[in-house]
Amino acid sequence: MFGSKRVKFILFLVLGVINISPVLSDQVDYNQPPRRVSVQEEFGDYMDIVRTKISKTWTPPEVIEKGHATVVFKLDKNGNVLSSYIRESSGNKIYDDSALNSIRDAAPYAQFPSNVSRDFITIQYSFDSSVVSRNEVQSLVQQSEKYMNRDNKMALEILNQAIKSIEGDPSSYFLYARRHKLNKMLGNELEAKQDLAESKRLKALYNQKRIKKCQEALAQEESPFAYFTLANAYDLAGDYQNALYNIDKAISMTELNHAYKRYRAEIVMKNSK
To answer: What is the pTM of this model?
Structure first.
């Protein structure tokens, strides 16, 4: 029911400050609203082009229940990326890297409109995704959350509807975890125990699905990032030995491996516990 092609994602763009000085800065200045409105007017159509290009290069990774990351990047007048960085992290390396990579992979962008004299623009771009890809299920989950701690019986009733509509799909593991919590709060110990077991069973299936997908990607292209994503998949599944093996492969293939080395240290700490 859920696959990478059906994952819902929403992309937002916010124009940042324009600086025609040759000195570039990665700091976004939000203290000039009149000027920012002018930028919106000048680059309205251009932003549609940017959004279209990025949407074609970004596929949300199936690594977390929900994801949100904000990237700030700078374009020169020829559409080249001058800089990019994560302004707001999703908390997951794979997700953040996929967002940054999509910005770079979509380059070069179009040249600025002919009537624009600015040397570059800074754009704030948000990436949002959820494994809940059906609107009605997402709506039910949100409704259930609103009743949490106020009317737990109603929250449970609504969550039951969401689970019924996607019952058995590995991606629904987190819904059973939520129902486990609600049943515990309501004193339904037997139901809570069953939900916890089902959540763990589905999560294991979801982990295997994610590992298989990363293995297939590695088979198509052997690269440091492919080994990194596979290491992350094993890490999330709690298989730290295989995670270490694959992150070591990633480190051995690139000199720019400081981030990979830091990640390896995190896996070693988890494995030692």
So the answer is: 0.54
